[in-house]
């Protein structure tokens, strides 16, 4: 089995990239951090009235860890649809791959020993804000939410990673085309899988 992970600024393209990789890799499954958000009533509100979604306390992280460990124990019975591998994957038919995607993955210690590869999609402020404005959220972003909560939290967690010398993260430019990003990550995963099998 092989586990690789996508962390990203909001709207960085991680979910799209993960879904495309799933369709290209053999026996590949995805676990999304977004599926573990607490209901709105359980998410804290700060003094400005902002719901604090971009923090670990807004997520059922214990449940996420349990889901990952359950997959690791029995990937073959996880519901993964075995796809006919591409030629570059012919020697990887018996490998199971889990992609975990989210916005706060590498800052959570119980998960950090699991990763084979860590990818982090980044975006500059203006592009991130533009993409965020095109999305519809439930609950909807309140005025000033991006600047007052979302972006500062992204910078905080990214700085924590960059200041941790033991954290090996491959930073990817989220402004590049999906095709370019997909090609790079796919090739990188295949190389890593081949190394693991040697």
TrEMBL record:
Molecular function via GO: ATP binding; metal ion binding; nicotinate riboside kinase activity; ribosylnicotinamide kinase activity
Q: One cellular component GO annotation, for this chain's record?
A: cytosol
Tell me the Pfam families matching this sequence: AAA_18 (PF13238)
Per the UniProt entry, what is one GO biological process? pyridine nucleotide biosynthetic process
Q: Does the keyword Nucleotide-binding apply?
A: yes
Keyword Nucleotide-binding assigned to the entry: answer is yes
- Please list the reactions this protein catalyses: beta-nicotinamide D-riboside + ATP = beta-nicotinamide D-ribonucleotide + ADP + H(+); beta-D-ribosylnicotinate + ATP = nicotinate beta-D-ribonucleotide + ADP + H(+)
State the pathway, as annotated in the record: Cofactor biosynthesis; NAD(+) biosynthesis
Write out the entry's keywords from A to Z.
ATP-binding, Kinase, Magnesium, Metal-binding, Nucleotide-binding, Pyridine nucleotide biosynthesis, Transferase
Tell me the protein family, please: Belongs to the uridine kinase family. NRK subfamily.
* Family annotation (PANTHER family): URIDINE KINASE (PTHR10285)
Q: In its UniProt entry, what is this protein called?
A: NRK1 kinase
Please tell me the species this chain comes from. Sylvia atricapilla
Q: What is the lineage of its organism?
A: Eukaryota, Metazoa, Chordata, Craniata, Vertebrata
């Amino acid at each position: 089995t092989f586990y690789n992970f996508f962390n990203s600024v909001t709207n960085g393209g991680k979910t799209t990239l993960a879904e495309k990789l799933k369709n290209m890799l053999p026996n590949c499954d995805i676990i999304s951090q977004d599926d573990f958000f607490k209901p709105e009533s359980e998410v804290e509100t700060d003094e400005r009235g902002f719901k604090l979604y971009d923090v670990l306390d807004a997520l059922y992280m214990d449940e996420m860890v349990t889901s990952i460990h359950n997959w690791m124990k029995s990937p073959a019975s996880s519901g993964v649809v075995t796809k006919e591998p591409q030629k570059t994957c012919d020697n990887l038919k018996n490998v199971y791959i889990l992609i975990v995607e989210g916005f706060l993955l590498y800052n959570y210690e119980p998960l950090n020993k699991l990763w084979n590869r860590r990818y982090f999609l980044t975006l500059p402020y203006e592009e991130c804000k533009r993409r965020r404005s095109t999305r519809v959220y439930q609950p909807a972003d309140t005025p000033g939410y991006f600047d007052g909560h979302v972006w500062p939290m992204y910078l905080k967690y990214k700085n924590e990673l960059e200041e941790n010398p033991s954290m090996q993260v491959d930073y990817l430019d989220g402004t590049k085309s999906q095709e370019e990003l997909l090609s790079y990550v796919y090739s990188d995963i295949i190389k890593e899988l081949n190394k693991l099998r040697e």
